[in-house]
Amino acid sequence: MKSSTKNKAHKLELLFKEHYPTLCLLSFSIVKDNDLAKDIVQDFFSSYWNKKKNLSHTVSFRAYAFKAVKNLSFLALKSAKKREMLIKNIARPNYVEQESFEKSTSKNSIQELLNELPESRRNIFIASVVQGQSYAEIAENKGISINTVKTQMKRAYSFLRSKADKDIFYLFILLVVG
Fold this sequence. Notes:
Blueprint: H1 3-31, H2 34-51, H3 61-91, H4 97-116, H5 119-129, H6 135-142, H7 146-163, H8 166-177
């Protein structure tokens, strides 16, 4: 092994030792799975090593690594949700006509309630509850503060609780979460 390659490997090893625990915590805070978080961080370092020659980041390694691991973690969540939806659709029996009728009727009622919300509040609510975005992501995407997102979510939930009967509201929560 050449001296410069050894030196680069040593630098990467030092970066790994210094940042691995923190990056794992960051990833875990997003994916809520310790093993997956470790895999994501290890994949990041592997990719970083392979692409090091072609990368030219203008920020510190720490900032670059945090942003990359955060993005990889969100991608992992997104693909896990897709897999979950595919499994649900595959595992769903075909003989639930009555149940699906009741759900579609309830979904229509829920959709009507959502349509009563002001457009910006409805978009924030859907981004959070249906699309699973964090308040910080919504704030960043919409160019508003996190407190505005929190306030809009609080008002949306309050409105839905006041307008929907208990059964529809709880069914809505079950449909969104389940």
